[in-house]
Amino acid sequence: MRTKCATDNVIPDTFTATGKVPWPTPSIADAAKIVGKIPINKIRPELVVVREDGNKDLNDSFELVRQTLSDAARWADDYQSQQRNRRAIAKQRKTLARTIKRDIEKLRKTVNRIVDSTPALEEAHAPINHPLQPAEIKRTEQSLRADISRLERLREECRKSIPGIEGRPGDAWLLGYVCKMAEGWKKLTTLSITPRGRFSRFLEEGLKLLRPSREAPAWESLIKTAIRRFRLKDDEPLQPGDDLARFEV
């Protein structure tokens, strides 16, 4: 038998990235309904307390689910904001790449003019380090060529895509949500994270509490993307936002 729910402790509301819409605070009763749809033999033993009367106390699992929902809303907001910022950065980099290309073309023309004009520039008796001293003119040419090479490398890097920003922008919140709910799922149950089955229903029930009016998304596709992007099946999955890093975290 399952026990009655314990009295709620207050958990502060979370807010969306705009800071205007508070998330509903999940209650213990809400969490109990979600836990109630999971076979009790699949809930982690450390969350099940057998009382002297033989009843099973699941209050720890209720609190875990409630906290998971609260955390998932916060992390999803944050991930959506991070991805929005990374998309803006990607746009800025592409603009910069076009600007650098024009600058490189100008520098190449400058180098060519210096090379073509070297006989007219050289002053054989100019003091050391004077701009018109032949060796100094050569160093200036070499320095400009080195600058061009560095700018070319920078331009190539600016043109490369940023990880994690592909796909529809609207999926960002849901991906962050799936990631953190998966973390709670591992703590709550002995069941695997799979695109279909109990995990997707766990996500669905949680979303109904956080956004009752929102239509159910295509969970199977989202879960597959989240598994791949956040390495959810690894011992140490990525946190939302780590997947947006240009280099390995």
What share of residues is helical?
55-70%
Structural class by sheet pairing and helices:
mainly alpha
Rg, Å, rounded: 29 Å
Sheet with the most strands?
2 strands, antiparallel
The parts where pLDDT drops under 50 for at least 5 residues are: 1-20
Strand order of the largest sheet: 1-2
The fraction of residues in strands falls at under 5%
Keywords:
249 residues, mainly alpha, two-stranded antiparallel ribbon, 2 strands, 56% helix, rod-shaped, disordered N terminus
What report would you give on this structure?
The chain has helices spanning 28-35, 59-121, 134-159, 171-188, 198-210, 219-230, and strands spanning 49-50, 56-57. By secondary structure, it is an all-alpha fold. The chain has a two-stranded antiparallel ribbon with strand order 1-2. Helix 1 (28-35) packs across helix 2, helix 2 packs antiparallel against helix 3 (134-159) and helix 4 packs across helix 6 (219-230). The longest helix is centred in the middle third of the chain and has 63 residues, at 59-121. Mean pLDDT is 88; it is low at 1-20.
